[in-house]
Specification:
Pfam families: AHSA1. Belongs to the AHA1 family. This is SRPBCC domain-containing protein. This protein has a single domain, classed as START domain (Alpha-D-Glucose-1,6-Bisphosphate, Chain A, domain 4, 2-Layer Sandwich). It is 26% helix and 39% strand. Strands 1, 2, 3, 4, 5, 6, 7 and 8 form an eight-stranded antiparallel beta sheet that branches. Strand 5 and strand 6 form a beta hairpin.
C-alpha cells in the first residue's frame, strides 16, 4: 500500500551555519551556488536545470572521481524564500524521468524533504526532515535500513555547504 506522507520515523537533521539565512537559501536555490557544494565529497555536480517554483524542477548530474555519472532531480512542492523549501527528490535519467536508484532496486522512487531555515544573531539553523513518499512497505524498510548511511551522507554534504558559506562570506 502506498503512503503519501513521510514515515513516522522520518529522517531529521539539524545543523547551524555561521552565515545569514538569505545566503544559505541562495546556496540551495541558485544553480551556480548549488553546484559548488551539493553531493558526496569529491563528486562534481552539473546543473542541467533549476526552475524554482512549485511544480518546477532541479535536474542535475553528479560525476564520481572515477567518472561514474548519476542523474537526480528535485520537484519543488513549496517555496517560501528564505525560510522554507519542500521538494521531492528522485534519481532520474538525463531527461528527468524518475528511475530506480543505481544501488538498490528497493530504494524509494521518491523521498520528500522539508527544509526550514531560521536565523538568530547572524547564524542560520537548517532543519531537514524527510522520508519515503508514495513508497511501498519494502521501500520504506530499505530507507530505514539505510538511514545511518543517509545521515552520514548529509553530514558530509553539509560540511561542504559550511565550507562554501565560509568562502562566500569572506569575499
Amino acid at each position: 500500500m502506498a503512503n503519501n506522507h513521510a514515515t513516522e520515523n522520518e529522517l531529521m537533521i539539524t545543523r547551524v551555519f555561521d552565515a545569514p539565512r538569505e545566503l544559505v537559501f541562495k546556496a540551495w536555490t541558485e544553480p551556480e551556488r548549488l553546484a559548488q557544494w551539493w553531493g558526496p565529497k569529491g563528486y562534481e555536480l552539473q546543473v542541467s536545470k533549476l526552475d524554482l517554483r512549485p511544480g518546477g524542477i532541479f535536474l542535475g548530474s553528479q560525476r564520481s572521481p572515477e567518472g561514474h555519472v548519476m542523474w537526480g532531480k528535485f520537484v519543488y512542492q513549496e517555496i517560501q524564500a528564505p525560510e522554507k523549501l519542500v521538494f521531492i527528490q528522485s534519481f532520474s535519467d538525463e531527461e528527468g524521468n524518475t528511475i530506480r536508484a543505481p544501488f538498490s532496486g528497493t530504494w524509494p522512487l521518491e523521498v520528500i524533504n522539508h527544509l526550514t531555515l531560521t536565523e538568530s544573531e547572524g547564524k542560520t539553523t537548517l532543519t531537514l526532515r524527510g522520508g519515503p513518499f508514495n513508497a511501498t512497505e519494502e521501500e520504506r524498510a530499505t530507507f530505514e535500513n539505510m538511514r545511518p548511511h543517509v545521515q552520514q551522507g548529509f553530514v558530509g554534504t553539509f560540511d561542504q555547504l559550511d565550507a562554501f558559506l565560509e568562502q562566500n562570506l569572506n569575499r
